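job 3f2a | input accepted
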Amino acid sequence: MTRSVPIEEAISRPLFEPLGPEHERPNPWSGPLGFVIGGFATPVSRTERDGALAEQYFAAANALVDAIIDGRVGDYEVANAALFLYRHSFELLLKAGLPVKVRARKAIHHLGDLAKSYAHHKRVAGTIVPPWVVKRCEELATVDPRSEAFRYGDYRTPRTRDGSPIEDEIHIDLFHLKAAMQALSTALVSQNWMIRMARGDRP
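job 3f2a | predicted structure (203 res):
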C-alpha cells in the first residue's frame, strides 16, 4: 500500500495530529497506516511499558535483518542500527525483570551488570536464569559497554572484563546473530511473567 504525498503537505502538515474516527481501521494491516502514541496506547505499569518497548525494538531489529537477507538493504548500511535495536531491547527486558524498587535506582546501561543483577533477583525469587543468558549479555557488553558503540559508533577499543583488548575488526554472522538474539529474547520474555501477562499470555 503506497500513497503519494504532495510536497506542500510534506513540509506544512503537522506530524502529530489528534486521533479521530478517520483513523479507525478493521485490522492492523488495513489503512490508514500510522502510529498511535499516548492515551490508551500507553502501558499502565513501567514493567509493561518496558516490555512493550522491548518487543518493538526487537521487531524493528528483525525487520532490518530480514531486509538485509531479502536484499532490500545492504548489511553495511544498517549494521549499527540493527545491533543497537537488539541491544536496547535486551536492556529494557532486563530492567523490566527487576523489582520496582531496584529498577528505580538502576540507571546503568551495562548489559553485563544488568544481567547479573537480574539473575540475582530472579534467584532470590526462586527462578534460575540460565548461565548462558548472563554470558551472552556480557558478550554484548564487551563491545558496547555503555550503550554508546552501536548507538553513536563510538567503539574505541572494545575490552573484555579483565581489560584485555578485543581485535579492532570483528565479524558478526547475520544468520547466527538473528538466531542468537531470538534465543536471548525468548529466554528473557519467558522469565518475565508480567510481560507475558501484559501480552495476554497465560502464566
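job 3f2a | Residues 48 and 194 are 7 Å apart (CA to CA).
job 3f2a | closed
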